[in-house]
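Hi support team,

I submitted a single chain yesterday and got back a structure, but I'm not sure I'm reading the token output correctly. Could someone confirm the output below corresponds to the sequence I sent? I've pasted both exactly as they appear in my results page.

Thanks,
R.
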Amino acid sequence: MKRTKDKFRMNDHKLLWHLDRVQKWQNGEKISPIYLEVGITRFCNIACRFCEYGTHMRKDRQMIQTDVLIKFLREAASIGVKGVGFFGDGEPLIHPGLYEATIEGKKAGLDMAVASNGLVLIKDEKLKNFLDSLVLVRFNLSAGRADSYASVTGMSENHFKKVVENIRKCVRVKKENNLKLTIGILMVLIKENETDIEAFAVLGQELGADYVQIKQCTYDSKDKPDYIVDDYRNLEESMQKAEAYSTEDYNVIVKRKKMNYKQKRYDHCYGCNFIIQISGTGEVYPCSDFFGNEKYSLGNINKESFRDIVLGDRYKKVMDMLADDIDVHKECILTCRQNEINGFLWDLKNPPEHINFI
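Hi R., thanks for writing in. Yes, this is the structure output for that exact sequence:
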């Protein structure tokens, strides 16, 4: 079968467009990360089956204060960070300073992105400016039908309708104002929504999204949770039917690489030099796997400048520790965020023989 073209390269990486920084890293120079994933809150307004922030951490009301967030974004831009995504931890759209932060991030020269469950939205009078400050907004709907949505999120079927209408509104504002914005919709594939795959693709097309993405559910516990799909290959027929809805203007992207991933092809983690993740506590880590682990904390943007964190001695010490001491086959989850980047960087560090026989 002819597979859908993934024009967003979501099954791969984009370091090929940052070879100047890759070269500096190869030369042993200190570099700033290219991209930051920032959880600006530690709480959420829904309770997805697969997410800890909607369950036992739901009452953790921590967030990065707006003034700190804006200062951090300006500093990040000043040291060469290219993009910031308000992804991870809790729900960013319930942060009272989200609108101002995204506007200021764009002004500083950053590509800004937001991932949301879509249950609440920026007020109508601010929505155009908010969307215009973003290069990407991704809604985690994780269902193609209202009843499945209720099972996945712990919310009602009416909430499904509300999220759908919020996505529709964003698409309308984008088109009416000719905004350079990508609108995507995510499905985290678990048992509760595995019969929705084709319906999800149909819904995304009907809403006018630029893409829908169907991805594996990542978990870090030793015991496999009961909601994890037993074998994604059993859903291949449904995934192919979903991909058939792709057009030149609408991509249905199935992240097969990580669904069927069995073993890392690299022995060390280098990708964290290029992607940094920040918790809603303000704590900076090389990877979300280490959230809450003081040993791998790089600093906290509530207490020190991001510039000082990146240029500081501790930053280098932790990065060296990751590269030299971590056993990625035992200490890291299989489907890590930096996986594709790590494979690329590993090859650069460990070239094959006869490289001129291309």
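A quick pointer for reading it: The mean pLDDT is 93. Let us know if anything else looks off.

Best,
Support desk
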